[in-house]
Amino acid sequence: MSTPPPPPPHQPQQPNPYGRQPGAYGQPQPQFGQPGPSGYEQQPAYGQPQQPAYPGFPQQAGAPWGAPPPPPKRRVGMIIGIVAGVVAILVIGIGVLAYVGLKSDAGFPEAEYKLTLPQKVLDEKYELTQDLSASKGQALEDEADGAWDARDTKAVIGQYALGGDQNEGVLVISGMYGRFKNTDEARDNMMKGAGTADNATVAVQPKDFHPAGTDVTVTCEVLTQSGGVGKVTMPMCAWVDDNTGASVGEITVDTATKDPQDIDLEAAAERAAKIREEIRQPVG
After folding, report:
1. What is the pLDDT of residues 130-139, one digit of tens each?
2. Which of 142, 187, 191, 199 could potentially form a cystine with 206 if both were Cys, beta carbons 3.0 to 4.6 Å apart?
3. Is 159 helix (H, G, I), strand (E, B) or coil?
4. Residue 85: its pLDDT value, please?
5. Buried b (16+ CB within 10 A) or exposed e, 95-116
6. Strand, coil or helix: what is 86?
7. C-alpha dist (Å) from residue 254 to 78, 170, 206, 250, 270
8. Which SS3 state, helix, strand or coil, does residue 278 take?
9. Quick one: which of 183, 86, 169, 97 has its CA closest to 132?
């Protein structure tokens, strides 16, 4: 009786050139991110980026695998993106101060007060980030010099950030000091002038206020401005006295997207009066 031949020696399985083992007929192959036959996750080809467990969320350093990052803050860039427009609106507004009334050389008051740009305003909530007096104010001074109802004028234009962070809020002060006549008319024209700036619309008509502790009328309105970040709401207030005139525009994350009718203009007038108290200083 013959002995059966021994079985052939074991042949090692050849590696699959595609990096995965073939499955049984009709069974799907494991996909990227799914466990393979050995229980380990299949790895991407060399040079290909690792796909996170939750598509659409990049893996964050130090974060649990697959955990989505915190949503971006809506405020980032919103305020900064409209600062230039705010400055333009207020510069136009204060520019009207130099053109009101008829030309006259009599009846001008004495120069007793000037405007300054302190490092912090509004009870130190806003910090000065840019003094634009030289770059934006020189043209206004040249046009106002020796003309109409303004004499010895000097422009003061400053940009402030809420807590030093422009993403939180921006305050722009655009003013002039010198010797002025027809102050009520000047204030009214400042408000009208701001509404003629590009993409600006007067959403709430000007209202006069007399904040407690002041001897000046503060007029406030609500403007909306359309631009790359959409429509932005901004309260604006202004005053003009014998020596100083300024407009104040404030935009915060909370007010920028408010309905214009919901803006508290009386509170805005009180803030403007507070700013006037802080930046209006005796001459000398």
Report:
1. 998 988 888 7
2. 191
3. strand
4. 60
5. bbbbebeeeeeeebeeeebbbe
6. helix
7. 11, 12, 22, 11, 18
8. helix
9. 86
